[in-house]
Amino acid sequence: MSSNKEQDAVSTFGSYEVGHGKPPKHSQFQKGKSGNAKGRPKGSKNLKTLIREEFLKPVTVVEKGKSIKIPRIRAIVRKVTVDALTGGHQEAKLALNTFAKCDDTADASTIAELMAGQTAFELTPEEYEIITKLKLSDGAD
């Protein structure tokens, strides 16, 4: 008793067996042709790559009277740290929080114990008052 399944299993081009995971030769992908011809074009980039390229583009910065080219991300980090030194407590907090997130040498448990319920490098009202007084005394000189 011969069934149609047995006849379908044997291709007309020799002894190639057609079945699960083995499509007929005429319907398989042709060599040199893509299975997804309208897929992602060559050279296209995802968002992460685009952002990385933008941050790594060079920008000219004047340092000690000389023009130097550095990546944009480095210029941003320099701006944040300079603003932290010359600006208010918000800039300092941003710089310190950024450092804490990037630096793996700080022991999180020690920081947590020191801060006792504060977020990393959040100023208490007493600390803020001390800083304000120091700024006023520096401005009077």
What can you see in these coordinates?
Helix content is 49%, strand content 9%. The chain is mainly α and 141 residues long. It has a two-stranded antiparallel ribbon. Strand 1 (58-63) and strand 2 (66-71) form a beta hairpin. Helix 3 (72-86) crosses helix 4 (89-102). The longest helix is centred in the C-terminal third of the chain and has 16 residues, at 125-140.
Short description:
The protein is mainly alpha-helical. The protein contains 6 helices and 2 strands.
Please describe the structure with a list of short key phrases separated by commas or semicolons.
mainly alpha, 9% strand, elongated, two-stranded antiparallel ribbon, 6 helices, 141 residues
What's the topology here?
Layout: H1 4-9, H2 47-56, E1 58-63, E2 66-71, H3 72-86, H4 89-102, H5 108-115, H6 125-140
Antiparallel strand pairs: 1-2
What is the distance, rounded to the nearest whole angstrom, between the alpha carbons of the first and last residues?
Answer: 109 Å
Mean pLDDT: 75
What does the radius of gyration come to? 32 Å
Strand content: 5-15%
Coarse morphology: elongated
Strand order of the largest sheet: 1-2
E-strand count: 2
* Element string (H = helix, E = strand): HHEEHHHH
- Number of helical stretches of at least 4 residues: 6
- Flag low-confidence runs: 8-12
The description of the largest β-sheet is: 2 strands, antiparallel
**Range of helix content:** 40-55%
Structural class: mainly alpha
